[in-house]
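Researcher: Next sequence.
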Amino acid sequence: LYGYYDNPKRESLVWSEDKNEIINFDILHSEIIGNTSFFLSGNYFKDDGYRMGQNISRKRISANIKYFPKKIKDLQIGMNGTIMEKDDGIFLLWESFDHGYTPLDSMFYRKNSLLYQLNPYVSLTNKKSEHKLSAQILNVSLNFNETNIENDMSSKIYYLDYKYKHNIESISSDIMIGASHTTTLANAEIF
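Model: Next structure:
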């Protein structure tokens, strides 16, 4: 996808002589080799924005792998993962009515973020029951690129989940039990 922002009719709103572009690019590949399936996708997004300094750049890669062992018929082992990096600009107040797309004092803030997650899992299923153990590691880090202030923020989440499901034919019902655990580590100097 490609596009661009046209200049506004009111000349006082024009803040750049360059063409402000929008670019979005996706790629995808999936394949099965033997008893293993692979999936890989990527995305690149760039938006120069129509307001000064409020541009966005984002890169993301996601992957998925599933393995079905031949020796244990109903066993599935897998891992999903994503990593994304984003950089964007933010401003709250505009210069004036005549310069509505320009930040006050031409000041804007940059925000950099990094997100990644990993989701491993194991599943064993037969005609009457299912066992599933899954986990997630999620990390989100933000940096607001301001000088003189420590303002990095981050959060890490660790999640573990076990589920057991069993079919009871005599009463035509399923029973499900399980347990979950979550640990969150958060860090922020300011909110």
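Model: The longest strand covers residues 109-125. The radius of gyration is 24 Å.
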